[in-house]
Every structure is written in structure tokens, then in C-alpha cells.
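Note on ligand handling. Small-molecule inputs were canonicalized before submission; formal charges were left as drawn, and no protonation-state enumeration was performed. Where a ligand contained multiple stereocentres, the stereochemistry in the source SMILES was retained. For zinc ion, this procedure yielded the string shown in the input block below.
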Amino acid sequence: MPSQLSFPAIGLPPIGEGFATRIAESVYWLRMPMGADGINVWALEDGDGWTIVDTGLRSAETVTAWHHAFTRALDGRPILRIIVTHLHQDHSGMAGWLAQKVSAPLWMTRLEYLTLRALGAHTVDQVPVETIRFYKSVGWDEDDLDHYRARVVDFRNMLYPPPNSFRAIEHGERVIIGDREWIVAVGSGHSPEHASLHCPQERLLISGDQVLPQISSNVSVQPVEPEADPLSQWLASLSAFRNDLPDDVLVLPAHGRPFFGLHARIDALLNGHEHRLERLLFELTTPRRAIDVFPVLFKRDIDKMMLELATGESLAHLACLRGRGLVIDEVDSDGVRWWRAL
Ligand SMILES: [Zn+2]
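Structure output:
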């Protein structure tokens, strides 16, 4: 853990019990069930009711947790608005359920909402031919593909259907919540148009997955857009956060504990990626496939469970070097993509 970060002694709210920890005068921290640490969601006092930021994974446990929250942390007062930072299911999973249950509008950036709707519109009876072509091109063998086919999940089972309408939020927009102003800060690379919320008055930043204290957010090339360069977008987003946001905010991340040290954390994330890019470039003096460079990028061995994630991240680093004009990629007659330094 980077030493420049500090974690104020704030009591951890119990996971899934609907009790909250007060962070500031009008800001409360709840944890919804997910793994050992849960996922953080935030309740902001909003006049006579609440604005909720992020909603948790779709599960029976999270439904129970929200029912507890209604009467405990939220004290029977209405939820007036639901803001979701981005489309990933641990953030958006309960938005549809919650919006219907409490008749509150969903606020989200346009690209996150529309992508969420698009992902939910398809059935996955069969893995698309483009996806198979994509994973063959990175170097997966038949065994890898079979394993992938066997465990691919229908995205629609992972969240309640989102509401059919929404309120779009945009970068720089000022959202009045209660008597506080929160400014939307958009980032890209982890998801298409991720929204964080900055409250200058309270010196708070609800960072979603944009800045996390312990883990580096996943940045992956996906089969749907094989030529994408999400890591360049991610690095640019982090640099913009570093330039635009003050260092003295208490960061309220989606995973892990609230912390001080926004700029130090961003610097560590930026440096981490740059070091990996340097090592990767050195490795590419010989042509390599995406799966060949795992040892350069990851400390741990990549098993079949990790393969999809590692492949996406590996491609993100390769595409970033290509975007910088330092490497090229060529597809051979078998459809396999080889990367080499120029
Ligand atoms: Zn995420």
C-alpha cells in the first residue's frame, strides 16, 4: 500500500445490515454484500430524502440489505434520486430494482446508460463468432476457448433490467444535492464514461472505480472493440483528475476504505502502468502474442479463470504502445496477431 496515503479512523459499516457510517454532515457510507469487503454505496442527504450513489450487485442478499437500509440508515425517508457511476454490475446491478421500488429516477452518463441497455438486449445462447475470432487472434487454444464457452454468463442475469428512461449527467455538470453542490468528473478506460462526484464544499470525491486505494482498476480491450486503446484513455483520465481536482479531498472509493492522498495514488497508478509499458516494449524486440507477455505484466501465474481478464489487460498495454507509435501488430495467415517493437 502506498505510504503517502492515509486512512482516517472511520468505523467500517457492517456489510449488508443497512447501517451506515457518517462521513460528513450529509454523507453516509453503506456496504452492500460482495466478497469479503462488500461494495461501497453512498447516501447523500437531499432535502427530505436521499440521493443514493451506486447500488450493489444483483442478489437476494443485496435486496435484503436495501430493505434493512430503508428503515435503518435511511430512516424511512424517501430515495429521491439514484446516481450510478458506471455500468459494471456491482454498481448498476440493483439500480432497476431500486428505481422501481422507490419510484426514483436514474441519473447516469449517457454512454454508460446506453451501453448498459445494449448489453442487456442480447441473449448469449452461443458465443458470437467475432468473440471466438478475437480470442483465437490473441493466442488462445481450443482448450481455452472451451473453458470460456462453458463459463460465459448472460449479462442479463447479473443485474435487474435498468429503467427504460434516465437523466443524463455530463462532465463538469453541477448537481445540487441537498444544500451541497457536486461536480461530475468523467473518466474513460475502465468503462466508457465513468462518473465521479466532487464536492468542493465538503472536500469529498466519490471516485467510483476511477481511483481505488489498493487495486489498480481493470482496463481491458474487449471482443466488442478489438482495435480499442482504453489504456491511453485511462492514463489521460487519471492525468486530468490529477490536474483538475485538489489533493486535499477525502476520496470515497467503491472498493476499500476512504483515504487521503488522491494525487499520490494517481501518481502511483500512472507510474505502475508506465513501468509495465516500458518492460513490455523491451520484450517486443521479438514478435509476441498477447498471451506471451503475461509474465512481463503480471506477477502471478495466469490460470484459466484469470485468462480473460489478463488477455484484456495485456491487449490494453499493447494497444497503448501501438497508439504511441512504438509497436505494430500484424495478423498472420492463421488469424493470430503478433506484436513487435518498431
Ligand atoms: Zn467497474
